[in-house]
Specification:
171 residues; alpha/beta; Rossmann fold; binds S-adenosylmethionine
Amino acid sequence: MSAAERKASRLEVFIARMSAQKAFLDDVAGRLPGVPGPVLELGLGNGRTFDHLRAVLPDREIFVFDRAVTAHPASIPDGEHIIIGEIRETLAWCGHRISERAALVHCDLGTGDATADLAKAAWLAPLIAERTGAGGFVASGIELAMDGFDELPRSDAARLGRYWLYRRRGS
Ligand SMILES: C[S@@+](CC[C@H](N)C(=O)[O-])C[C@H]1O[C@@H](n2cnc3c(N)ncnc32)[C@H](O)[C@@H]1O
């Protein structure tokens, strides 16, 4: 059976997801000049996307959020730029450390479970919307409903890999 005729395997979904993630981050990096503000990385994890973000956006301040630091030692930011704790709380209360609204929020908190992701999206969407500046981007592995944002077109890889890109209206 050809790949086009059957349900995609989890390996294929994972590869599509990583391809879409990198493509979105590269695309946004090229569109970020002129959009002020830091980058927020929600979910440091192993630090792979943090490492990519700092490679493609070397002049941007990047803050990472996670409940614990488990990243590769080469991909851990300095203490000023790590915010440890439950994102539901830290994102709501980070304004005293991150005074400017973000030019890009990258959200890599998806669980792969549709029900858990729906529950997470319900509290996450308003918090991300609050922290994103006018003209700012949100790349997310969870579908988010945010007033004042446009959903940007997605590639086949992004559809298969469940990745979304949004932009806040205004400039
Ligand atoms: C899929 S991993 C991120 C992978 C990362 N982007 C990378 O490239 O290595 C998700 C991370 O988000 C963190 N996380 C998930 N839900 C969270 C929450 N509610 N609060 C804080 N951290 C959370 C997990 O601890 C995990 O490290």
